[in-house]
Amino acid sequence: MFDKRHLPLQTPAGQLVSSGKAILLGEHFVVYGASALAVAVPNGVTLSWRPADAHSLWIDNWDLQVRPDASGTELERAFQALLDGAPWATQPAEMHATIGIPSGAGLGSSAALGVAVLRALEHANGHPLTHEARFALLFAWEGVFHGQPSGFDHAASLHQGFTRFRRFETPPLQALPPASNLYAIVGHVEPGASTKTMVDGVRSWREAYPVRFQDLLNSADARVDVFLHALEQGALVNAGRLLDDNHAALQEIGVSTPALDRAVQRARDAGAYGAKLIGAGGGGCILALTDAIHIDALHHALQAVSIRTLRIEPETPRTSSSLPPTLP
Ligand code: PMV
User: Fold this and answer.
1) For residue 245, how far is its CA from the centre of ligand 1 (angstroms)?
2) What are phi and psi of 226, to 5 degrees?
3) Segment 107-154, tens digit of pLDDT
4) Cβ–ligand 1 contact at 111 (below 6 Å)
């Protein structure tokens, strides 16, 4: 029988939006301490909530209800893990989320959902957390999907802008000023693989080729500053080459696929300054760097090889919460 609670909330107490992310540089190497760079992908998750008798999370556009359960599905275990770290969340909330980005495709949908759920719990309980506390708590949620996440995904989603991340630095996240030259197309090329499986595969590769891995890691680490400088100067040919180098490194450690490689080549043939797979790989998305003049043509070219495309442009509105600005 159709359950009326499945409808979007008619009278939410609040609504908020959290962003996904596209990794410009450094995925996988970030796990071992290299610098990495991400840009927010707006409207990752829209979530409304209201006080209730028990915690529940409805993913309206997946036709899915999730309750906290330590022995349930991944989402149920993540929900429980988050609540275990939030003993202050004594006021349960009914939450309804819509996921606006492809999931399991390297765009950080799980982190965006975790951020939205946590912030709704904060609001429902009148318990604002600092950014640092949110970052720490979300490892429990992300750990269910990723195994040993670097924290990059949820750091980028929490910041909602242009982000540099270095895992073993304090603080690991550096919020960067918006990049006025950053025009890119993200193409969702094929279904992605499990991040945990891909990270485990890279760990094996690193064990088999430790010296080569360290070389690649050092190059990945150095690439971020050079890229930021090139972007700031509008030296897009140089910036694009760094994306290409990043893709080659990801190919070498075994996380690309023929379809991702073909899409990357298609982007370059269509005039992109550079292109790479983004996220854990094994499928998912690519990102191709362009400029204001060529973005429409590149977009068109990538639509032909993508399930879905997203545009990243400097004027893309920053995601924001529609809740009162009392929480940091
Ligand atoms: O979840 P994805 O596909 O965006 O990948 C996350 C980035 C990795 O570097 C592969 C893993 C991590 O924890 O940083």
Assistant:
1) 18
2) -65, -40
3) 999 999 999 999 999 999 999 999 999 999 999 999 998 878 899 999
4) no
